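User: Quick sanity check before I run a bigger batch. Here is a single chain. Can you write out its predicted 3D structure?
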Amino acid sequence: MISLSDASLIIKVMALCISIRWVCGLYRGVIAGSEKLVWLSVFGVVFATLRFVIVLPVMWVYGFDALVFFFYQLFIAVLEFVALSIKSRSMLPRVKNAVIGWSFAPVKNVLGFSLTIAFTASIWVVVTQTDKLILSSVLPLSVYGYFALAVLIAGGVMVAIGPISSAIMPRMAMLHAEDKPIEVLAVYRDSTQLTAIIAGAAAITLAFFSKPLLWAWTGDQAIVSSVASTLMLYALGNGCLAISAFPYYIQYARGNLRLHFIGNIILLVFMVPAIYLASFQYGMIGAGYAWLVVNLIFLLFWVWFVHSRLEPAFHLKWLFKDVLVILIPASIVGGGIKLLGFESDSRLLSAFFVAGAGFLIIITAVLFSSAARRMLRSVISRWRPV
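Assistant: Done. Predicted structure follows.
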């Protein structure tokens, strides 16, 4: 048991860690804006290893205690802050005769833009956490654990858009600043296809093969029967969400988030009541249906509306040539494998089956993506002997 004084100290250390990592986000933005993404990725891998792997031998030496863990995390947070600060400052231009002090003048022009991002991020937290808050009061603790597992696994679909968005947003902003609209749309379309390949294939795999995946992971038939349908619905909903995030990127590049602000308000207005009503009526499966339906409607109608305002006559080309042409064949392959009716008591064999099915689905998506085929031809030509 943790004493009250230790718990109080741990909360203070956690707050300090959060504060330091919040400031680190500013330095990461400087580095990402300079498109030093390879360095930033390697840095992220190193510190993730320090934070979650190296902590184990540290605790083995100093004791498996909560205080040891959190003070170690504070040490890593400080180390990360120092490293990011040095790197970001080395990339900024030298300013002679600079006056040190506080001033809103440098950020005045982007203050509205920044506040819009902060506000919509807050709305996003509400949208994505409402179902968990509601279901925690509706479901028994054991059943809520099943729901949390489904949401956790389905969240893997959204992992794909993090690195992609980090890479394309500074690139699109730079191209827009250089008045290169054709190049902006080219990056937009290629990255849409990349997201459709990765996030789409992940969503399709989880939707069709949720049962063997859960069996391979947990080995508990009760969990499989309770969670599979909810996992399928949340995976598909997250797939829709990954694609519908793209209009935000082009608005970000243009420095005008008015439509993104309105879209988040609309999503909040519809999502929260839908999840509330569906959860109280049907439990976690109701929350899954609400999550999928609202995100699908948002993708079909709001994304079309934003495209029509930003790039008229662009939406249908984007939807059919960059999204559906990839997802439909991948879904057909996934459905065909599903019809094989695979069942096995072996968790290892089930894991291999899901991995193989996912591989075939993603290969199909790659083959039907013009951007992926172009990149493959480029790689092949580079390695072809002269």
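The chain has a mean pLDDT of 86.

User: Great, the batch can go ahead then.
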